[in-house]
C-alpha cells in the first residue's frame, strides 16, 4: 500500500498535469478549424499533450518526407496499456505469425489506426487531429471505454509535404476574414495542388506498390503494428456532405463476412453521431473496395476492418465556401467537427467489441497460414536468365512482407502460365523463386497475383486489374499443390571476368538493365546496342543487347572496367565478357547493325499549369529516383519562360495535359529540332498535340457515320437513372490487354512479340502510314486479358495504335497512348519507356 502522503502528492501531481493539458483552442489561440494549421504546429500540440499526459500518450517518429518534414504518430491508450505497449504490439504480431514466438496473452486491446490527410489539401482531417486527441483524453464514459479497450494510433498527417504546400499557399491568400465567394483566389489552388506528395504521386494509390518514400515508411511502420482497424480520412467536392462506411459495391470477393459485417456496424455508430447533430451524410455510394493499393483495401486484404471517410470540402473549400445550395456556407469549423465525430464514433464501435475484433483478426491469419484461399497453393517464378526482373519482384514482396523461398531442384509440374494464360507442363530449376500460399500474407498475395479479379459491379472508382506477374512480365506459374521451398538463395549467376576484355555484353531485359545503362552513361561510358540477334562464346544474345567495347572508351583508361563491373554488381545485371569482336553468328561488333547509343542524352519534361501533375510526377520520379538520371522540368507557360529550349535538349517528354503544352509559334522550332535529331516522346493525351496536324503522321480514325447514328438512337432513350452506369460505357478504367509488338524495332527491344499493357486511355488513332506501328491491337477480343472495358470503347480498341514511332528527318516522335510509368508500379513499362529515351538509334 502506498503511503497516504505520497499518494496525495501523486494525486496532486496528476491533477496539476491535467490542469496543464491545454485544449486545442487554448493551445493555438483559436478553435479547431478557424485557421489552417501547418504540419509542424500539429506536431507541437502532439508534443505538448505527450508531455502533459505521458502515462497515456506516446509520440513516435516513423521517418521523414522527401522535403525533410518529420513523419509522426501519436499512440493514445489507458495507463495500463501504455505501460504494456510493446507487449501488446508484439503479442499481436506473434498471434498472426508475423513475428516468431507465442503471445503472452490472448486478451489484449484492439489497435485502431486513424490516418489523416494522405491527400495534402484535404486539410480538414489534419485540422481535426488535435480535437480528436484532446477528446480522447478529456475523460467521460466513452473516452474511458476507448482507452481501456483500444490502443489508438493517430497519424496526424500522412503527407506533410503536400499538406504544407496547400496550407502555406492558402494562408498567404486570405485577408482579415476568409472570403466565401467561390471566385475568390483562395479557392483556386495553383498547379500542382497539395493533394500529391513531393513527386506528385497520389499516395493513396501506393499502399501496395510503395514507390514513394512516405508510403514505404508508413507501410513499414503499419506492419510493425498490424492494426485490426484502419480509418482513412479524406475530402471530396465541397457540395457533398459526409461519406462513411459501409462502402459502395463493388466489394472484392475475398472480403470476409466479418469485414462486411463490421462495415455496417461502424456505419451504424457514425450514423448515430451524425443524426444526433442533424448532419447530412451518405453511405454505400461511390467509394468501393476493390483496387488493392488504397488505404482502405490494402489493410482490408491484410485482415483489418478498414474504411474511407470523405468530408465535403477539399482544397477548393478553404475556411469558408459558398455552397451551391443557396445561403449555405461550408466552414472548416463544421468540417472539422464532422471528422472528429466520425473518428470517435469509429473508435467507439471497435471499443464496444474489441475482444471479438482481435479474435477475428487472429482467425483471418490462421486461415491464411493453414487453409489459404485461392486455387493456387504455390507460385513459381522462373528466375534463371531473368535475375534483374525477379530481384525487382522480390523487392515488392519484401515491402508487403510476403515471404518466399527458392526451388532446390528440378521438378516436373503443371501450372497456370500467367504469360500464356494456359495450364502447361513446366520444370522448376534450382534457384527459381517459389512463393507458398501457406503464410500470413497469403490473402494479399492471392489478390495481388490474381489475373481476373471478380468484379461484381462495373461502376468503380479505379483500375480494375493489376496482376503483378503481368505488370512485371515475370514468367510465373500458379500451382495447385503446396511446394516445399528452400531458404537458400541461389548464388550470383555473374560469369567470372578476368583481365581487360575486348567488350562487355549485357542482355537488355528489364528496368534493372536500364538503370545500369543510365549509371554508366552518366560516367561517360560509350555504349552500343545490337540491332539484331547474334551468337558469341556459345551464347545467343537478343536484339537490344548492350555492347560496351573498349574501343571508343579508351579515354576512360583503367576506370572503364571498374565502372562497368561495379555498376553491373550494383544493379544485379548479367555481365558477359568477350576477347573478340567477331560474332559466330550475326553481326560483328564493328558492323552498322551494332549502333551507337546517344551519349548521355539531355532530357527535358514539360511540367506546370496545363499538364497532368501525376503524369509529370511519374516521369520525374522515374528519372530522378529510379534511373537516377538528370532531367530538366520545363514550364513553358510560366511568366518568364522563353518557351521550350530545344537547342539544349536531346529528348523532350510531353506528359498528358489539358492546355497548350507546345505553343503554335513553337511548332517550327519543334520541326527544326526534330529534323536535326531531336526525340519527342508524347504520353497519353499529349499524343493529341500532333494528331491530324499538317506534316505529322498521327491521324484520328474517321468515324463510321452509320454506327454513330445508331448510337445516337440508343442514347436518346437511355434512362436517367442509369446515367452513372452509362458513363462507364465510355471508359477503360485500367484493364489489361496483350498488345502486339514489333520487337525488331528498338522501341520494343527486350520484349517478346507482345506486351501486357495497362490500358486506361482509349484513343481513336489509325495505324501510322509511313511510320512504325510498334505496338498495336488488331482485335479487341483477342487482346483482352482482364479488367473492365466499357462497351462503347471496345470498338475503338480494335485496329488501334498503342506505340508508334514516326521519323522526321534525323529525329523521331514516339507516341505512347498509355503512360507505361502509370503510378510507377507497372514494372515492365519502365523498360518500354527506357527504350524510348535511350535505345532508339
Ligand atoms: Zn482524398
Task: Describe the protein in words.
With 841 residues, the chain is an alpha+beta fold. Helix content is 33%, strand content 19%. It is globular, with a radius of gyration of 29 Å. The chain starts with a helix and ends with a helix. The relative contact order is 0.08. Residues 119, 122, 204, 234 line the site of zinc ion.
What is the secondary structure topology, with strand pairs?
Blueprint: H1 4-20, H2 24-28, H3 39-52, E1 57-64, E2 70-76, H4 79-83, H5 85-95, E3 110-116, H6 124-137, H7 141-149, E4 150-155, H8 160-173, H9 213-225, E5 229-236, E6 242-243, E7 248-251, H10 257-276, E8 288-289, H11 297-301, E9 305-312, E10 320-322, E11 329-331, H12 332-351, H13 354-370, E12 378-381, H14 387-399, E13 405-406, E14 411-417, E15 422-428, E16 433-436, H15 442-449, H16 468-472, E17 476-479, E18 503-506, H17 511-522, E19 528-530, E20 534-536, E21 539-541, E22 546-549, H18 559-571, E23 576-578, E24 594-596, E25 603-606, H19 613-627, E26 632-634, E27 651-654, H20 667-675, E28 679-683, H21 705-716, H22 723-727, E29 735-741, E30 754-759, E31 772-777, H23 780-783, E32 784-786, H24 791-797, E33 800-808, E34 811-816, H25 827-839
Parallel strand pairs: 3-4, 3-5, 5-9, 7-8, 25-26, 25-27, 27-28, 28-34
Antiparallel strand pairs: 1-2, 2-4, 6-9, 10-11, 12-16, 12-17, 13-16, 14-15, 14-17, 18-22, 18-23, 19-22, 19-24, 20-21, 29-30, 29-31, 29-32, 31-33, 33-34
Zinc ion binds at residues 119, 122, 204, 234.
